[in-house]
């Protein structure tokens, strides 16, 4: 397994994995027509934009096996005054789940945050109905800071929980 930071050339395969995972995890939660008709095009545009001129506080870390994208994490350093660095995306490909890659990606995110934004916490938002993801974050000592509502791109309002870690080192202690 090879770890590296994403480059522009990676946008399409990142978008494909992101789209596939949303279609699986969010079916019945987000609008089905949105997931089938618009999501792929939107994710291609999002990732092309994110990797064309990334903001200085953005990190996108890939896990690869050969030329296969096994997973990725995208984070934004010091994104929130209250919670710190935001983990915006964490995705593992089919066939690689249950093998510790999510934990490895969270560890890599914590290392990146330690290098760039060590003095602030880390957080992410997880859909309330995404019980397996919530259980994973609980297992690595994510602290539930409460419920928020996400206005999804399809227009739906979705209940989420904000999971926090006091610092990158607190997350690294549970993932490395």
Automatic annotation (TrEMBL):
Residue ranges of domain N-acetyltransferase in the record: 1-176
Matching SUPFAM superfamilies: Acyl-CoA N-acyltransferases (Nat) (SSF55729)
Gene Ontology terms, MF aspect: acyltransferase activity, transferring groups other than amino-acyl groups
UniProt keywords, alphabetically: Acyltransferase, Transferase
Keyword check for Transferase: yes
PROSITE patterns (UniProt xref): GNAT (PS51186)
CDD domains: NAT_SF
InterPro entries: Acyl_CoA_acyltransferase, Bact_Acetyltransf, GNAT_dom
Name assigned to this protein: Histone acetyltransferase
Native source species: Vibrio rumoiensis 1S-45
